[in-house]
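Researcher: I need the complex structure. Ligand is N-carbamoyl-L-aspartate. Inputs:
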Amino acid sequence: MYRACIADDSEGGAVLGWKAGGHVLSVRQFDSASLKEIFAVSDRCFVPPSGPSRLAEGRLMAAIFYEPSTRTRLSFEAAMLRLGGGVISTENAAQMSSAAKGESLRDTMRIVAGYADLIVLRHHDQGSAQLAAEVADVPVLNAGDGPGEHPTQALLDAYTIQRWRGGLDGLHTVFMGDSLYGRTIHSLCLLLRLFPGQHYTFVAPPNAQPPRALLQELVAGGVRLTVTSDLVAAVRSADVLYVTRVQRERFADPSEYERAARCYRVGPEVLEALPPTGIILHPLPRVNELPEEVDTDPRAAYFQQARLGVPIRMALLGRALGVL
Ligand code: NCD
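Model: Output:
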């Protein structure tokens, strides 16, 4: 159970590296110090329950989702409710909001900003969160902008690794799956590079390779990179195996999706090669790339990972509202 026990302790908010009341649009906003602070605030949300928090009482979060979501929307909503705030949401904004009548995202964001104290937005266009932040006069939190970024997911991914391994320095992370359209991969690899000694290996289908500009940026940032099709060899020295599904909805040609989706899977040979200290993460949902048999493996951390979305989002919401 989570409880916002942060109310009586003001030290957490004061030193976060990004602005109270500010937007969360990209992992580029964070440095290692701000990350540690977010983790510290999140840690303090794990105290046994002793009544509901009133930290965000009277404040409203609007969750506007133009793309499907289970974990991100519900964990944001749970986080806001656990802080004592309220939630208004459209979970199918593309069909059920005025977007279906032709309203622009700019107009919708301007209007919603008048109803709520912050906006959590998921939208199919890359750059949509930035656009929303330009017109909304309340904080905007990017819950996924098409194939762009998913910063709050990357924060909870890094938080999971931190809790599981005790640190983020010197990691070898194998990113398996769709590195072209996978926004969680984009955000996580940009976030972990804040810590020294990172080695990333991308194991992606030929038609879902990581964007060249991203690779160049990572190399310029001192990350050691390997791109390979040999998953078993890659995981032999992995600390983290970050599995993702191929993003079906981003492929214009269904046969291209089928081709990509067949490429990689966490089979017994992968589990055997992964060191005992390695951990397996997946932002979920999974399709065929991560069979259920893996769930009982002691290195499977993805269900804990999903749970950690709540304290991380409590910290982010609390900070955006200026109550933490
Ligand atoms: C991810 C997303 O939406 O990008 N899901 C999530 O937020 N946990 C990953 C995905 O959809 O594959």
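Model: Summary of the prediction. The beta strands are 60-65, 86-90, 118-123, 140-145, 172-176, 199-203, 224-227, 240-243, 279-281.
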